[in-house]
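Kindly inspect what follows.
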Amino acid sequence: MRHGRLKTESAPAVAITVRPRKAPATPPVRPLTGDRNALISVLLVDDHAVVRTGYRRLLEASGKIKVVAETGSGEEACRLQAECTPDVVVMDLSLPGMGGLEAIRRIRAKDGRCRILVFSMHENALLAERAIQAGATGYITKSSSSDTMVEAVLQVSGGKHYLGPDIAQNLALNRIAGEESPFGSLSQREFEVFEMLVNGKGTNEIAAALFLTPKTVSNYLSQIKQKLDASSTAELVHLAMQHGLIKPYVD
């Protein structure tokens, strides 16, 4: 009997089927790297809690947007934007403290990639222009339809500029008519001081909100009055009313 080596054979490979995990019912909030299947994250800024609640429900009902944080002040908006890094900041202009224009400027100064959509009660084309100059990516009014607001967030999150139909029409009509705003001579900082003043803020309050000295604010006010040919704060307020920057006071 001839002895030889035993021939060993390896066991045949066994195919293992791995079942993919089911996708979550709600997509995760999109990171900054950009996942098209994820929700658009939004920081909502308005000084009225009831308004924020309504807009949060409106945006999230689209199934494409998630409000990750909300606040009622410009100062807190700057902090939350840096903390949450949302895809879009949806912000009102009429805010306590520094105001919306200053908040936009500061956020964009710290994060040039941040996309900001203004939603305001003001339909004035000048405010829209100033907001865009400060760094906003879009501007719509609070009278816009829910579809318009959702579409604006989607467009702005994609890096596009967006103007609501009413604002775009006002801008076009002003240019066709060749109308020049008396506020065009004001610098961005002067306009911010002017807007805060005509909305009822005093020199010390403006100085604190903008991190300026009261003397600096007083110098700005002197320059503003000179450029607008106004001799008093009352005349500035009247001028702002004439051009739709503020609403007339009603008792």
Observations:
- The chain is about 45% helix and 10% strand.
- Strands lie at 40-45, 65-71, 88-91, 115-120, 138-141, 162-163.
